[in-house]
Here is the input.
Amino acid sequence: MSTLREALGAVWRTPRGRAGMGFLAFLALLALLGPLALPEPFRQFDLEELANAAPSVDHPFGTDQLSRDVLSRVVSGARISLAVAALAVGLSVTLGAAVGLVAGYWGGVLDAVLMRLVDGALAVPRLFLLLLVLSVPDRVPLAALILLIGTTGWFATSRLVRAEVLRLREETFVRAAEALGASRRRVIFRHLLVNAAGPLLVAATLGVGDVILLEAGLSFLGLGVQPPTPSWGGMILDGRPVLEAAPWVSVFPGAAIILTVLATNLVGDALRDAFDPRGA
Amino acid sequence: MRRWLVRRTLQAALTLLIALVLLFLLIHILPGDPLAREGEHALTPEQTEALRARYGLDRPLFGQLAAFLGGLAKGDLGVSIQYGRPVTELLLERLPATALLGGTVLLLNFVLGVWLGVRQAVRKDSREDRWITTLSLAGYATPSFWLGIVLAGFVGVRWRLLPPAGMRDPLGGGTVATAVDILRHLILPALTLSIVSIAGTMRYQRAALLEVLRLPYIVTARAKGLPESMVIWRHAWRNALFPVLTLFGLWLPILVSGSVFVESVFAWPGLGSLAIGAVGNRDYPLLVGAAVLVAAVVVLGTWLSDVAYAVLDPRVRTS
Amino acid sequence: MTRVLHVRDLRVSFPAPDGHRFHPVDGVSFSLDRGETLALVGESGCGKSLTSLALLRLVPPPGRVDAGSTIRLGDTDVLSLEGEALRRIRGRRIGMIFQDPMTSLNPVFTVGDQIAEGVRAHLPVTKAQARERALALLQEVGIPDPAGRLDAYPHQLSGGMRQRVMIAIALAAEPEILVADEPTTALDVTVQAQILEVLDQLRRARGMAVLLITHDLGIVAGRADRVAVMYAGQIVEEAPTLELFAHPSHPYTQGLFASVPRISGPVERLTPIGGTVPSPTAFPSGCRFRPRCPQAFDKSELPPDLLAVGPDHRMRCWLAEGRGGRD
Here is the structure.
């Protein structure tokens, strides 16, 4: 899709978009390289004198109370957080687009019913839904967590896509395609979905930031990513008891979250500006 | 207008009903027996049976739903497993604290967020605008629980400037002293939640005002020779208010969620910390009760903001 | 004849993406006398709206009026005014009505409010007095049942009535000059005539000068005393109305007349002007009409000055040299 490339190009041209994209690319690289990027991938935590060490050349982010290098843990946490966010958002966007498309295109009773359901679902804050579900089992496997976050996040997207479809349906080019006898499937995919892709992409990008915050919060409460799998939220929880003595244990994962979500928001904003026909 | 009001209210009621049904269904499709407990919470078979009967878990699904809704209509949300007291009672007990916190944050958002948003719209693209935008984006990106523990840890514990936890000192003074005490305890949690949420309000207002400033009737207002402040606040902002009102309808769920973390971190005795406790102890009636209350608040909030919109927009009011 | 408005060498510039500035209004000069109507005619993109906005210093940023331009309102140099002084001429000495009354009126205030606001901005009156003024103005612009309409909202009125309200707003502070930017374009044909009639009556009753901006030659005849035709940011022909209609001299003007369909007379083919209006970012060199002009010749490569072709009749075309000073 050339518009996608154009939009990304437009984002790259703005200084803030560039900063955001750059940071995300860097983070993705770190995540991909994984263990290779870690200064101390498989450190055994048995050197007591290194516990709660302040940041130094050896340990740029310091160590935690179990003598683990905080930088390594932050990088490991990045892999998890990004993966969870990307997958969950992917799921949300797919579900939301599907429902929104169906509701907007077929209209009528189906639309009314679907949208009423969405309204009802939106009334309960996502966090509460997740708290309810996550309180039942003892441990939630990562895959289940991703599934849960994904299936609770599509409601707003469906509204968005529906609105786009409704708007686009009335556009002349869609009428023209239908008049030319284009098959329904063709109309849906080629015309409607492609044009709704812009706002969808924006929603997805911003959604990634939201999920990172959500997952971190859940992990902080002990309900999200379970130890020993590293997660930023979990690290912040770990660092709480030693906050006075070793603030870096909590501060750096928090800073990582801030930077990452900031980056996604900058990119999302820039994308939104790029797709907005009215421009600046 | 009256017809619209009736329609909108019915719509709200329907939305709430659907939310309740969805919640009900959710609980019932969850794996695991809500009554099964291990270790110290283990129940004897007799106790389990008794609870099962009490909660009507032995009835068919539809019957349970009817019982659930029927109970709700009477204000009966069941009994908390943790506390052994009616859920409704517990919720009402904790509601004021959350209302105080949420209300304060909402007020701050409205006053500061709106003012900053308008200000930044007028100064669009200036250096100050760019900085404040980035700062507010950073605020939005900050996890509320992290900010909470940092503020509590440093301002509260290390520097001892403000109390880091709770809502008031157990050793109370007179009413005024108590009020002041509560306010002191309110500062950090309210600050935390505000920092995180004000960014959204500010940016929304800024965007809304920029949209309106482009419109032809703003040129008309200037061409009349009106002072610029009047053009901005009377003509432009009055129209840019609407998206912000809608925003409050959307903000409510976010504020509610945010308050869960903040209340937890600051041990603020509100609904959020109650819910967290319920999660840990698998107190489903309490958890569901809290979810129901929150859903009701959200539906009420969106209804209110829609009504406010209708009242303020003559195009809706007079149709 | 007292001259109320004098515009000389008006240039409005905007920044282009590459950093240069381009000039959608490029050296426009005209003047208005008390009580007369000057029509500024041209197609969209010729710069006429920007010209009118410049008079009130309402050019939208990042556009600006360039140095070297002169706008004089009687004795006042409009371009040197700032803040409060500038605010005082808007509405009070020049009133302006815009093209689309639906979007030019604030939807959340009543029409009475909006008119009264215009009165109170400049005249020391109480709220009640301003309201009375608003009522009187509504009557003057010919709105039926003015008392009932005073508290109506813009969306409750028809297009024609909204435009009358706009006129009332523009006249609220009793300006000497009324600038009407395409006042009838957004209205139905039948309503157009009514609005123009209202404008005429008001002009005569108050002795105002009117700058009528339009792309429609049809509404110019019979309404304007003088006409100035704009093309590509410049005035290319100006003359008293009758003279212009009798002897359209600039090839562009001739093209405009030829492309207007006539109801009376034998049905001929419409002859549109070939080509398209040039973008302000890329005006042709030399005579700007040259690429589309059927009479272009070698001298057209030089930008022409405004030359006389008849009594009080000038055009920006080298062809005038052959004809200069006709009977």
About this structure: The radius of gyration of chain B is 24 Å. Chain B touches chain A through 53 residues (CB under 8 Å). DSSP finds twelve helices and no strands in chain B.
